[in-house]
Amino acid sequence: MLNLGLSVFSRNKDRDRKAVFRIPSRIEHLRKTSSRILDALVRYNVPETTLFNIRLCVEEAVRNAIVHGNHCDKHLSVTIAHWAEGRKFFIEVADEGRGFDYRRLPDPTDSEHILRNSGRGVYLIRKLMDKVDFNEAGNRIRMMKHL
After folding, report:
1. Most buried one in 4, 23, 92, 113, CB count within 10 A?
2. Please, what is the Cα angle at 5 between 141 and 58, to 5 degrees?
3. For residue 13, what are the contacts with CB-CB under 8 A and spacing of at least 6?
4. How many domains are contained in the chain?
5. pTM across the whole model
């Protein structure tokens, strides 16, 4: 069952409400998830190219959480949160997996890795978002984009 219910944690003049929802580890929920986040950006008059970049990064992060973090286990969930602080928009994606060492990701543009079928998602996220952080375990990513 898809749980896209929102929970409001806080609100003040500098910080918009924080929306949190969970999805099961199933790829078919990618579009609905990214659409829900983009809907929250309507009031900010964000340029189309920025919206495209945010959609791509959200879908890459959620896909990674489903496939690599939760290993497509439909009994595990992916938790997504988003909020605004002024003109900064934050998105967090967390899985229930053991995580990975985000510090040791190979550069997919390096000739040794260029033909690999995976490894480009985090690279793209780092290129398209303004700030990207992982928790220590490597099972939560926080992305920030200036609007």
Report:
1. 23
2. 30
3. none
4. 1
5. 0.84
Amino acid letter, 90: F
H/E element, 89: strand 88-94
Pairwise CA distance, residues 8 & 114, whole Å: 42
Residue 99: what pLDDT?
86
Q: Is the dihedral angle over the CA atoms 9, 44, 59, 90 positive or is it negative?
A: negative
Amino acid, res. 94: A
CATH number at residue 113: 3.30.565.10
Which residues, 6+ apart, have CB-to-CB distance to 4 below 8 Å? 21, 23, 32, 33, 36
pLDDT in tens, 85-113: 999 999 999 999 998 877 776 666 666 75
